[in-house]
Design a protein that fits this description.
The structure is a single chain. By secondary structure, the protein is α/β, with parallel strands linked by helices. It folds into two domains: 205 residues, Spore Coat Polysaccharide Biosynthesis Protein SpsA, Chain A, CATH 3.90.550.10; 104 residues. It is built from eleven helices and ten strands. Strands 1, 2, 3, 4, 5, 6, 7, 8, 9 and 10 form a ten-stranded mixed beta sheet that branches. The termini are far apart.
Length: 327
């Protein structure tokens, strides 16, 4: 392995021992060979580190890092700090990739002088070996910063996941960008990365396989995650406005804010239903509306750094658990 590989592959690991071998095998089988793999054991209590050590023995490009549990954002930031490659990709350890994933994304960046490349993805179901395409239909094209950023903010044809993309590492380091320690940290961070990319190259090939599993963040929505969705949008709005570029992206930010406001209505109702407790559901609905109005307000004043939500929704007490413990 060269002293400085071209690509650094960052793989955070936490409670995913069942999926890790499939993920690491798919990286080992890449047709592009000049890469390193930073396996970040984020204090996982299962066999993730033990499995990772086996890959260290098999392939010198695979390197295990162990740290106390700090969450997905912390693990990604840790990987950025230790990555030696000119380019960086993030692969969630319960997912896997096509054998040409690194090759295609690297060529898209280099051939188009782009700082970010993007590919399509499929939903994977581990137990059945079924893969279902995500029908977002991005075209194969090279986008300038403004068009790419508007598309990713709207979260329609392009999506803000940290994975399914390759980044020039310098976008992170030159602009002091890191993932905030919240849920949906990629919603907050990907648009900021796109803001600093002069070009984004989009491939229409399906190269990433996202595992749909029961314990994922998306599958376990609660009120804290609903708050963090709104905080993620506020972080984007604040950053762009602080850079005096809000006018270019106002409509897209309003579109995303309304979209998440409407999704939150369902999430809030569903959370109260699960807890069998509707006592403060009306208050949470009102706060959701107030946050939406705050996000689209023309009177918002941008601040330096990470902004804070002015008000937050509250998690309902779970009456199911209380009744069960009373028995």
């Amino acid at each position: 392995m060269k002293e400085n590989p071209v690509i650094s592959v960052v793989v955070p690991m936490y409670k995913v021992e069942k999926y890790v071998p499939r993920c690491l095998d798919s990286i080992m089988e890449q047709t592009f060979k000049d890469f390193e793999v930073l396996m970040i054991d984020d204090g996982s209590p299962d066999r993730c580190a033990e499995i990772a050590r086996e890959y260290e023995k098999k392939d010198e490009r695979f390197i295990l890092f162990q740290k106390p549990n700090g969450g997905l954002s912390d693990a990604r930031n840790y990987g950025i700090n230790y990555a030696r490659g000119e380019y960086i990709v993030f692969i969630d350890s319960d997912d896997c990739i096509h054998k040409d994933y690194l090759k295609v994304l690297y060529e898209e960046c280099v051939n188009n002088n782009a700082e970010i490349s993007y590919c399509r993805f499929k939903y994977s179901y581990f137990m059945s070996n079924i893969c279902i395409p995500m029908f977002s239909f991005p075209k194969k094209e090279v986008l300038n910063s403004e068009k790419a950023l508007n598309l990713i903010i709207r979260d329609n044809s392009l999506h803000s996941y940290a994975w399914n993309k390759m980044y020039k590492k310098s976008i992170f380091t030159d602009n002091n960008i890191s993932y905030p320690k919240i849920y949906f940290e990629d919603i907050a961070t990907s648009p900021i990365l796109f803001f600093h990319a002069s070009k984004v190259a989009v491939s229409n090939r399906y190269l990433y396989y996202y595992e749909k599993r029961v314990g994922s963040i998306m599958a376990t929505i609660d009120i804290q995650k609903v708050n963090d969705v709104m905080l993620s949008i506020l972080i984007i709005r604040n950053y762009i406005q602080y850079k005096n570029e809000y006018e270019k992206y106002r409509d897209s930010l309003k579109f995303l804010s309304k979209k998440m406001y409407l999704i939150n209505i369902y999430s809030i109702f569903n959370q109260h239903l699960k807890c069998r407790n509707f006592s403060n559901m009306g208050a949470n609905m009102k706060i959701n509306r107030k946050l939406y109005e705050y996000l689209i307000s023309e009177n918002y004043k941008a601040v330096s750094g990470i902004p804070e939500l002015p008000f937050k929704m509250q998690q309902p007490e779970n009456k199911r658990k209380r009744r069960s413990s009373a028995r």
